Amino acid sequence: MDILFTICGRAGSKGFKNKNLKEMNGVPLVFYTLATICLYMDLHPENLVNVAVNTDSQPLMDLIRRQGALSDVQFIERKAELAGDKVAKVDVIKDTYHLLDKAYDAVIDLDITSPLRMVADVENIIDVYRSNGCYELVVSVAPARRSPYFNMVEKKKDFYRKICESNFATRQETPEAFELNASIYAYRPSFLDTDFSDSILDHRCGISIMKDYLVLDIDSEEDFQMMETLHRHYIKHEDGIREVFEYAKKFVV
């Protein structure tokens, strides 16, 4: 299987300045992603793997170059029209894939700000991707803590009501719901070859379930602090997260 792993990181971030350059528990965030890829490659030598980083951040490129485990990382300069904070990430991934001009069986995007991700999570999303050829993409999710049928509301005219109208008496009765955790996306190359302007979730999408780590997006200093605290806990209590942490530490010079 030929796999392209993409890593996308903008230089700017309105919510949390320079978040892609931050260190979590003594290790740059991007090193956790690189460590996950290396561990996956060690476990699956039968696969041909390429890694591409799409960024407009010179410091991020310099940081990645300083580690020696992945010497053949390909850097793609982020186009100006794809550097805004309203650009869909899939457009950046699509551009990266097309610029490399090589045939792949899968394009897997790993988010930089996801240190609570294990190699098993990457293996699982690839297994789901391969198990159903009808899926145009597979996204990582966690079981939702709230249900739009029971305890999530939105403003409708002058009042606030449940997002999905229902008469369920308890949350346990509601349809199963999931939250996207933005950690891993697996795209079929044929899907990236098409023109689409709607949401990727409007297409033939599958899911890969990850453990619920409160589904934190690092968009503020407070988010980062909470994630770092959780990370310290799981390093001690989750073998897969500790494995990535120990490997990522090897990259630190």
Short description:
32% of the residues lie in helices and 23% in strands.
Task: Kindly describe this structure.
There is one protein chain. This protein is α/β, with parallel strands linked by helices and about 250 residues long. The chain has seven helices and eleven strands. It has helices at about 30-45, 60-65, 90-100, 120-130, 190, 220-235, 240-250; strands at about 1-10, 25, 25-30, 50-55, 75, 105-110, 135-145, 155, 160, 180-185, 205-210. The strands form three sheets. A seven-stranded mixed β-sheet has the order 5-4-1-6-10-7-11, with helices on both faces. Helix 2 links the parallel strand 4 and strand 5. The longest helix is centred in the last third of the chain and has 17 residues, at about 220-235. The protein is globular and about 55 Å long. The two termini are about 35 Å apart. The mean pLDDT is about 95.
Poorly predicted runs? none
The overall pLDDT average reads 93
The count of DSSP E runs of length 2 or more, i.e. the number of strands, is 11
Number of helices: 7
Structural class, by secondary structure, is alpha/beta
**Cα-atom Rg, whole angstroms?**
19 Å
Shape: globular
Straight-line N-to-C gap: 33 Å
Describe the secondary structure blueprint for this structure.
Blueprint lengths: L1 E8 L13 E2 L2 E2 H15 L4 E8 L2 H9 L7 E4 L11 H12 L5 E5 L8 H13 L5 E7 L9 E4 L2 E4 L15 E10 L1 H4 L12 E5 L11 H17 L1 H11 L4
Parallel strand pairs: 1-4, 1-6, 4-5, 7-11
Antiparallel strand pairs: 2-3, 6-10, 7-10, 8-9
Helix pairs in contact: 1-7, 6-7
